[in-house]
């Protein structure tokens, strides 16, 4: 058990959530079966994909907005930390309770309340996965465009809190571009509604946009109204090999002069190709130094025309072994390669530091080349892949978890990579967020006056500093 009084990472005095009175009150709110306190069972809720463990004192599963309100009012009464958690698949510790307290799991808040095909929106609770929402709206010929790689495990609430991206971002944008309105319970237990059901809405401040990417530090989402689109009639994916990552990345800007805006453009380096091939035997070429995947969507005629044009542009710019999927099944197999990369990279070491820097698309070739130089200079293995079409590259430094010197070298690589991204006109995170993992680098990308404004907003929404402390600001 934690001591009854301690100080969190913000310097505020807090109390332990494991006090018998607190646990009893939590059980009154959500029921005995929906409060976990056993150390063995709370432990999984103390880590995300980073794998560092910060076990909470309790895990609580509300099923309604009213229960969420009651929990947060109790937290303010006793001043214990609260961290909201969705699927727990993040890469920056955003849903990890670094200061203890309780984790609020949104697993039971998993209903789709409405799908409106006439007005192109859906209303859902935060605990539904992206995949579940996509499947539900597709039955009505509609599409929810955000498509993060973790779509089968990540929750809508977490996607909004992290402003998740995905592979369809070049054409459709990130999660915030598809959120029309929110119901949010603030840190003090007030329910606010932002936005609405319409695409146009300029009444008051854009609090919907403020909540997107706020990492659970300003409030907890209990309901989301998201924008839907008509499902495109057809899609097509082209895959090509290249003799270098730089050559593959240089193709990214060649489509625009032809009036093309691909739905997705993904690049994969040779180390990723080798790792995926070893694990899954997709039949990828051993001659490829890089692979480029390009997808388009639209009407049947439009897709056929654009796919042919993409093949021509790729061939004219150094692509070889160009392959176009002839069926939905073949297309899915091409994208299975991309989705298999992250876990496959563990063949190169026991610790993978996965960063997600972003730069203007035209700067991607220089970014990738200079990151490779950074890895060589610090004797650190690096593999690159990602959403090249929107400039978002996943940089993976893979090392031995037990090698302190290797970890120190990798940390230098991370720092230099972040500075490089900012130098090239980009920033230190495209979709993973900041959490606690990147907090020490935040001032690389945001100047002091801007940071002070952000901290002021945090104080307005969370005067007692109980909501997801230890994140972003240090």
Topology:
Elements: E1 5-7, E2 13-15, H1 20-30, E3 35-36, H2 39-42, E4 58-60, H3 65-78, E5 82-85, E6 102-105, E7 112-116, E8 121-124, H4 130-138, E9 142-143, H5 156-162, H6 169-172, E10 179-186, E11 191-195, H7 207-211, E12 219-227, E13 229-230, E14 234-242, H8 245-250, E15 264-269, H9 270-280, E16 290-298, H10 300-316, E17 320-324, H11 328-339, H12 341-344, E18 351-358, H13 364-377, E19 382-387, E20 392-399, H14 404-423, H15 442-445, H16 448-461
Parallel strand pairs: 4-6, 5-6
Antiparallel strand pairs: 1-2, 3-4, 7-8, 8-12, 9-13, 10-11, 10-12, 14-16, 14-17, 15-16, 15-19, 18-20, 19-20
Helix pairs in contact: 1-3, 13-14
Task: Describe the protein's architecture and organization.
The longest helix is centred in the C-terminal third of the chain and has 20 residues, at 404-423. By secondary structure, this protein is α+β, with helices and mostly antiparallel strands. The strands form five sheets. A seven-stranded antiparallel β-sheet has the order 17-14-16-15-19-20-18, sandwiched between helices. The chain has a five-stranded antiparallel β-sheet with strand order 7-8-12-10-11. 33% of the residues lie in helices and 22% in strands. It has helices at residues 20-30, 39-42, 65-78, 130-138, 156-162, 169-172, 207-211, 245-250, 270-280, 300-316, 328-339, 341-344, 364-377, 404-423, 442-445, 448-461, and strands at residues 5-7, 13-15, 35-36, 58-60, 82-85, 102-105, 112-116, 121-124, 142-143, 179-186, 191-195, 219-227, 229-230, 234-242, 264-269, 290-298, 320-324, 351-358, 382-387, 392-399.
